[in-house]
Each structure stands twice: as structure tokens, then as C-alpha cells.
Amino acid sequence: MLKNQKLLEQLTLKEKALLMAGQGEWQTRAIKGKLKSIFLSDGPFGLRKQSGAGDHLGLNGSEPATCFPSSATLANSWDPAVGRAVGRALGREARRLDVDQVLGPALNIKRNPRGGRSFEYFSEDPYLAGKMAAGMIQGLQENGTIATPKHLAVNSQETRRMASNSVVDQRALHEIYLTNFEIAVKEGKPKSIMSSYNEINGTYANEAKWLLTDTLRKDWGFDGYVVTDWGGDNDHVSGIKAGSNLAMPGLGVNAAEEVVQAVEKGELSEEVLNQRVDELLTVILEAQKKFAAGAFSWQEQHAVARDAAKKSLVLLKNKEQILPLAKGTKVALVGDFAKNPRYQGAGSSLINSRDLESLLATAKDYPIDLVGYAQGCPRQGEDKPELLTEAMSLADKCDVYVVNVGLDESAESEGLDRTSLAIPPCQADLLEALAKTGKPIIVFLSGGAAVELPWEDKVSAILHEYLGGEAGASAVWEVLTGKYNPSGRLAESYPLTETDIPFDNEFPAEKRNAYYKESIFVGYRYYETAGVKVKYPFGYGLSYTTFAYSNLEIDDQGASLDVTNTDQVAGKETVQLYIGKEDSPLLRPKRELKGWAQVDLEPGETKRIKIPFDEYSFRYFDQSLGTWQEEKGRYQIMLGRNVADIVLTGEYDLKRGIVPKESANSHGKYREGKLLLVTDQDFADLYGAKLPENLSAGRRELEWNDPLREMANAKSWLGRATAKWLAKKIQQSLDESKPDLNFLFNYNMPFRAMTKMMGDMVSRPMAEDILFIVNGHFWRGTGRLIRDYFQNNRKVKNDKDA
């Protein structure tokens, strides 16, 4: 018997069909006299509950909220307890605003740092991403709020995000792009999860039974409900069959009619529909139990945001120990960000921050002598000589420059991918100009992902905040002045140049099929295996003290060692466990992160720590068997400060498992890390099938699942003009550093999504008519559109009157 059998028996077939889609932008469907709705809100790192009428694209203002550090920032803490504290605080704000479900955290893999939503994602490593996400989920759900990890799965680019097919081999799929979600689900136990827009090897994620039922529910034990990304419901009935429970936003009566007809025609079993409804009802009814809201304090929320930012700051460079700044140091503060901070991403996560700090405003609270502030250069755009001159003139007054540079809002946003790893040229020119004054330069770097640092040798110190949220400024001053000893570690690699990233010239994929040709060699797995030098390796971060490792012991339970603070300042060390297997016949990275431990130490203090092995330590996915296996034999156990700085090494013999045979095709280029030489045929051999082909460029008949951006290739002049107009509006918003999600969303939205994002305003026949017009049939298409418009209006009106 289903958990909610009695309630199910009270629902009509149409009511059950209606429950499979939302009611408006942000609520589940209410059934009069039988079921109340619950309220969903964006919120990976702050709640975005809109004040007036809801709209997913963020055109309407939202309620004031605490803006916490982004997920990319929190990951640098390497501390799930930090994520748990932020999640707990998010849950408090959700209760205050009567929000039942928070749409986050996001934990997709940073396949390429130019991915537009990298600031929302934790790491290039699935183990770290999964552990950090699990901590946030646990905190969010402590008071009954529903967490929604997203976007399941293989969602790595914003370009064509609703019409892109991720072509990925089975080992990479399971080891890289699903392990993060597996850990988050098993340890965080979320009550909901969001499916992604994209296809995975030709099947939309929201319609993949192997993913939503076999893997998520059966293998991982997930017992919540699956919600689509907004507009991510491709085929409504197919999604329900696969294991999807809720299509958002509200699809209206047309979608319910589609489900009813599918049941009546025998295309959808009512038993399957009942199962989906029951899974959804279980979470809705649980959420409607009244949890005590508890005390709420804006000051405490702000303190949580500051503490999280402080613990996530990464010190990248500290030449001649210029940091921390001595008391009374004369500081010249430079940079537009120092006055108008870059503290959050853009898109659906945009927060109306209540208590925003800036470096300039908070400087007075710390023991430095601020001798002046200068903008130095515009936020983006061309250099202005008068601004450079003003900044350079402060050299006569200061002992040191503190310069805040990084990525502006136009570089990182939902709906677009970065065009390069460089910071704006005017900011790089500013650093070059200030270096000529001879005064030491401390760079405070803002941005959600890796950047190139060609100016690194011109500066004395670099402190990276990522996107620190509303309290990031005071967190920075605490580190700069030595009130807090920096303990953050990078959760991604920083390449020397963008050309070092494998297949960077193919990212983002502009056509439907995105080939994940690097396979399992993502981020440091590639750089370490191929011997490619990086600017800063995965796991890197400096401290104001030093640590020594000794006395390594390895047993069946894990690795133990002593860690000693060998300097004069208390500090925190993050000891990282990597595992490799040199003699394996399998394709393997040189080393992979399999655990870590953090230890706080007073000067001269030694503590013994243990990092345990777990179910993820030795496993690999066997593509031929379709299951996880462990390879028997000898492994290298490596303990280090980061992936490139291994301090202690030992060996461990795994006595269980199998001895895999070497493949007839040894994939030599992959094995040697020579990814720059890999061809499409090499990838096809690894993939195990012929690669799906992309359509050639040029004018053609557009299809149902083509995004509106493809109208640039339409036969109709009207379609081409519309695509050109959308692209122009997007560029205008970027030039103003205010990415317009409305235009970005529409540009990448397929024709089918018109019926998903506009409720009953646009029926499927109407959307097909629009496509017909775009394909060069203006008069016939317009006539059909007018006819179907009135037919749809009558149907919707009759349903409401019924």
C-alpha cells in the first residue's frame, strides 16, 4: 500500500494529473478541500522570495535577505560544518518568510572554469563537492525546510543549456558527474532534488528512468521527490514515467489534460501516476507540519555569513610575509569593487542583500591607517587616465596598496559562459601602473572561479575571497590584519593559461552535442596525470604559520599521522588524502582525493589525526559490467598540503576485489595524459559507440527542440531579425554589468519551452505555429496561430468554468 493511500483515493484522475505540475511560478498545486500547496524559493546562498507577483526570471524585486558566500566560496573552507551553519541560517530565513522549500545547493562539477554558473558550484572534484553539499543539506533541513540539490546531472555549460546533449562515457558519468550527487543524497538525505535541463547521451535528464528511478531511488535510497528545473519539462508524460514528480513552473490545464489522456489511452499506467503522486504528497504533507520558527536575528545571520566568508578565504601569495599588516600600516585602498563590492553571482540566485558591507566602509573598524581611496579604473571598459593618476598619487601617502580586482557581473551569470579566464583589461592595467610606484601591492581578488594571473609577479600578496556574500569585507580585513589566520584551500585548479585546459577551444559547445572528451581527467586529474604545471594547484592555500607531517601509519581503516604547528601563530591545517594505483591496467588519474581532515593547532602543538577509508576510496565504475568494482592490489596512499605537495607517502594492499584485464584498446593517449592529442575517434573508442553528429552550420529548418538562438540560421527574415535583436539586448545588459536573465533565458530556450514557461497562455499548437512561421511560412503560420490562440482561450475558459 502507498504511504498516502487514503488521500489518493479521494483524488480524481484530473486532480492527480494537476499535482504533477506547479501552480504559478513558485507553488505546488493546491486541491480545494483536500491539499494545501507549499512554497518554493531560489536560495543556494540566500533566499530570493519575490515581493510581488512571482516570475522565475527575477524581473520583480525580492524580499530583503542575508546574502551568504557562494557555494564556490564555501567549498574553499573544506569544512562541511561551515556549509551546515549556512544551511541552518538559510532554514531560519525560510521559516521567517514562510518558504517551505529552498532550491539549492547546486553541486555540478566545474568541468571548465569558464562555465557561467561556476560560482554556484562547489568544486571540480566530486568527493569534495558531495561532502560540502551534504553539510548544507543537513543544515537546511534541521527545522523542516526542504533542501533541493541541483542540477542532476552532467550540467556543465549555460550556452544552449535547455537544448544541449552531454555526450559522456560511463566511467566519467558515474565517477565524476554522479558521485557528487550520490554522496549528497546518501549523507544529506534531501527531501527533493532538481533534474537538469540537458540530455545525457541522448535522453533528457528528466526523462531518464535509469537516472531518476534506478540510480537515484533504488541505488542511492532517495525517498523524496524530483522537481524539474524551471521550464525543464520536455515531455511531461515521459518525465512522470521516468520518475519525475513535479514540473515547474505551473503548466496549467493543458498539461493535466495530457496526463489524463495518456492514462485513458493506456500510454501511462495509473499505478505509475499514483506512485509519483504519493512520493510528492509524502514530502508536501511533512512540510506542512508546523515547526517552531525559533528566534530570528539579522545580526546573528550576518555573523554566520561573516564566519563562513572568513573560513573560506584563500591566501595565494604572501611575499616576504607582508601579511598580516602591522598595526597602523598606512593603506591606500584602490578598486571599484572596494566601494561597490562584487559579492554575489547574477541570475536566479541574485539576492536583495539586507546588510551589505564594503572594504571602504569597514576599514575604520580595523587597526590600519586608511590614507585614501581611489577607483583606479572603471568596473569594466576602457582605461581612464585620470582614474589611474588619482590612484598612483596615493603612493606618496601609503605604505602599501590594497587593490580589489576580479570578475565583474557581466563575466559570470546564469545564462551565459565566460569568454576567457582574464580579468577585465583595465584592471590588469591598473595593477601594472601601481607596480611602477614601487609600493607593495596586496591584491584582494573577487570572482566565482579560476582566473589567469599574468600580473602575479608584480604584486606582493594575493588574497582570494571568491564571492564572499554581504559580510565578506569585514572577513577580509580580519585576515589582512591578522585577527584571523587564513585557512582556506582552493577547491579547483588555477591553470597557468587558458590554453592549458583540455579541449578549452570546444567549450562551450555551440551545437547540440557537447563531447566530454576529457573523460575522467577533469581538473587536477588531468594536470597531475599529464604533468602540466599550474599556477595554483587544487587544495592549495597559505597560512600565517607552518605545519609538519610525520609518523604515517596505514591500516585497513585508513591513514594516521602526526601534524605539528612549527611556527609562532595558532592556525588550522587541512591534511588531504590522495590515492593512486601505478600498476593498474585501467585508465586512472595519477591521484584522486579520497578524504581529508582539519586540525587546529597552537604554536608548537602536535596532534595525531586519522583519515578513514570509506566506500569511495578504492572503487571504480566497470563500464562492461555496469557496476562499481574494486581493483585488488597495491595502492599508493599520499598525504599532502595540496594535490601537488605530497608530504608523506605509503602503500596499502587491498586484498578484496577483482583483477581487471587490460582492454584490447588501451586508450594510450588517455593513459599517458596526452589529451591535447585526443581525436573524436579516440573519444568514440572510449565512449563505446559512434558519436552523435552535430548539424552543419547554415540556414535550415529549425526543430522543436532548437533554442531560439538558432533563429540566426532560420529561413525566415523575421526569425533572423529576432535572434539578432535578442543578442543585441543581451550585449547591452552585459555592457552595463547587469546581465538580463530574461533575454539570456529566452536566447537559450527551445521552442517547446514556450508551452512550459507560460502556463496556458501558449498551447503546443500555438508554439508549433510560431516554429512554422520561423521556418518561412509567415502567412499560413500566422493564420494558424490566430486560430489556435482562440481555441486555446476557449478551452482554458471552459475548464475554469467547469
What can you see in these coordinates?
By secondary structure, this protein is of the alpha/beta class. Helices cover 32% and strands 17% of the residues. The protein has 24 helices and 26 strands. The strands form eight sheets. The protein has a six-stranded mixed β-sheet with strand order 9-14-13-12-10-11, with helices on both faces. The chain has a four-stranded mixed β-sheet with strand order 7-6-4-16, with no helix packed on it. Strand 25 (633-642) and strand 26 form a beta hairpin. The two termini are 32 Å apart.
What percentage of amino acids are in beta strands?
15-25%
Spatial strand order of the main sheet: 9-14-13-12-10-11
The low-confidence runs, each spanning 5 or more residues with pLDDT under 50, are none
Number of strands: 26
Biggest β-sheet strands, sense, barrel = 6 strands, mixed
- How far is the first residue's CA from the last residue's CA? 32 Å
Oligomeric organization of the protein chains: single chain
What helical percentage do the residues reach? 25-40%
- Principal-axis shape equals globular
The structural class is: alpha/beta
Count of individual helical segments: 24
Mean pLDDT, as a whole number? 91
| Radius of gyration, whole Å | 27 Å
